[in-house]
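Hi! If you just cloned this repository, the fastest way to understand the data is to look at a raw example. We've pasted two of them here, unedited. The first protein comes first, obviously.
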Amino acid sequence: MRRRPVLMLACLWPLDRVLAAPAAVPQPQALVYPRHQALDDPQQAYVTALLQLALERSGHAYALRRSTLRMVQTRAMQEIATASGSVDIVWAMTSRARETQLLPVRIPIDRGLIGWRVALIQARQPQLLRQVRSLADLARLSAGQMSDWPDAAILQSNGLRIDTSSTYEGLFQQLAAGRIDYFPRSVIEAQSELASHAQLPLALDGHLVIRYPAALYFFVGKHRPELARHLETGLEKMLADGSFGHLFQRHFGRLADGLKLPQRQVLDLLNPDLPEETPLARKALWYRPKHY
């Protein structure tokens, strides 16, 4: 009878050790984003930092990885739509077609600045756009655009002339050679792109800003609604605690202010391809320059 408690403890000891064992830590799920055509993508440092923080704030474990191959936006979107596994997420300007093809996270990670455009021009023509006061004035000149960018259709729908290229780097070469007159770039891209192409005879126009409603979103495949929910949760938490705005300001605030947007002639364009679901009424999501 005296041995029974000892035997009971001996039976319980392995169970107690099992119950005390730490839970297995889930392995992060790989999340692949596309390698951009640009050799020095001006958006990438900001967007990948934002993406990493949003995923961390979502409470789910992901490990970011860049794709092996460089690819244009349409190629990346096709890979995501077909669930090929080579790419899981892309950031791109929204359009009706893109929101039909993929699942958007409708928080503009650029705060709408993708639709604020200043022009790269040839260095030998610094006053090219000084007298532009209307779309009719601008329509006399040709703009360069990538053939798969929504901006090309927006400019055309507003009566502007465009010449397209199948490669991003080719547009800078076309501008330098005088085959196009100007290359409209978002205010978060223009200065860094000019610096990364310093070997070319290019300059940044100081007179005009072209503006249309637009948004840069994260897009995922329609087979990944949970990923879209996680991203939205993380971004909303960052908006609520101010870390979203702080990161944006650190990367782009001074750049946008330095372009002196309020002092420029503004040409407002329509964006007929902007989906109705775009949260334009949520003012906190959108950038507004000082003194506007």
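Ok, and the second one:
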Amino acid sequence: MEMKKTILIVEDDLRIAQNIYRVLQSEDFDAQIARDGLTGKKMALEGRYDLILLDINLPGMNGFDVCRQIRQFKPVLPVIMLTAYGEVEDKVEGLEQGATDYIVKPFDFRELVARIHAALRLSDLGNAGAGKRVLSVADLQLNVDTKVVTRAGQFIGLTAKEFALLEYFLLHAGTVISKMDLAKNIWHLNFDPGTNFVEVYINYLRKKIDKGFEVKLIQTRPGLGYMLMAE
């Protein structure tokens, strides 16, 4: 007999949390509720959940920070963000912090259930094929399926954009990549020489995969771009 999936609802509005809880119970899910960010983070990291429903505007710790913490320790756990915010910037921020999906309040519960089932299907497929696709340079490894990055066996927590940037470097290891190429392929933008967002993210990535290691993997080629390789 297949075990029920367990979902954690992190929502400070008791009425909304209870309504979601009842819907999930009717759909044959087990569910638990946390009503602030700190409790939600603690439960998500210490418990065994198949999916997290996470509000953004939470007391104690906002949903963006909770999602980032979850991603550092449970990189493949599906997280669907629930929020009244509908601005593109908020959606982008949620996805940047590692959210699997994003649904804006007020929402139809049928849509919420459909999104949950879709996220769980993707998670199950990812777990079934875990470990089959690994990109590596020296002692750095990136598992395309599980989204886990390690260096010398040490787990490295990355945001969604940092992960995409590192994956692109690994796919083109040993090749010089220009800022224009990175802007186009990672951010889907035309590169503006007056901006420094590429350098900012390269610096973020360097602090996570190179800091503390004798061999530096991200190399700068002045006037040309960047290259990922072992010195």
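That's it. A detail worth noticing about the second one: Helices lie at 14-26, 37-46, 63-73, 88-96, 109-128, 160-171, 179-186, 197-209.
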